[in-house]
Specification:
194 residues, alpha/beta, seven-stranded mixed sheet, three-stranded mixed sheet, 5 helices, 31% strand, EC 4.3.3.6, PdxT/SNO, glutamine amidotransferase, hydrolase, Pyridoxal 5'-phosphate synthase subunit PdxT
């Protein structure tokens, strides 16, 4: 199983480490052609506007949409969540528009308001250690979206079929259970196409 991490910005090496701990091969993705050999893709954190510009510059928008249309799993964390959303509250143009969610950028405030907490996540046996850094929030979800976790009654993780998002950074701790959850989504996809 080969899982790519979009390497335009963000904690690419940390995601690759978590993916490898979860038992898959992690690959830094810098060119659209690499998507063809992947079973799943992670869009990491960073700054969503910058990631969106870089995705347009290097022609990743259409390429990732095509990847997703095949039913291949995509996982967006923090800014990756914003990039995957159909609607961004600030009026910013949607980037990939893959997932039927509305998001609020920097909903948790600035860098100094960053924090760590344990979260209960649907589908995981144990509470997950989550790191929130200038994190976005999911403010509305469509009918097909399954809410996986909340923090103070706000949505911080969700899934829609083969699409997974989290407001927080699961790659910045030693807990790789959410990456394992993602690899299980990929196994389900692989079983369906065989």
């Amino acid at each position: 199983m080969k899982v790519g991490v979009l390497a335009l910005q963000g904690a690419v090496a940390e995601h690759i480490r978590s993916i490898e701990l979860a038992g898959a091969e992690g690959v830094a993705v810098k060119h659209t052609e690499q998507l063809e050999e992947l079973d799943g893709l992670i869009i990491p954190g960073g700054e969503s506007t910058t990631i969106g510009k870089l995705m347009r510059k290097y022609e990743f928008i259409e390429a990732i949409r095509a990847f997703s249309e095949q039913g291949k799993p995509v996982f967006g964390t923090c800014a990756g969540l914003i990039v995957m959303a159909k609607e961004i509250e600030s009026g910013e143009e949607a980037h990939l528009g893959l997932m039927d969610i509305k998001v609020s950028r920097n909903a948790f405030g600035r860098q100094r308001e960053s924090f760590e907490t344990n979260l209960d996540v649907k589908g995981l046996q144990e509470p997950l250690r989550a790191v929130f850094i200038r994190a976005p929030l999911i403010t509305a979800v469509g009918n097909e979206v399954d809410i996986l976790s909340t923090y103070n009654d706000e949505i911080v993780a969700a899934r829609q079929g083969h699409l997974l998002v989290s407001s927080f950074h699961p790659e910045l701790t030693d807990d790789y259970s959410l990456h394992t959850y993602f690899t299980e989504m990929i196994k389900t996809y692989q079983a369906a196409v065989q």
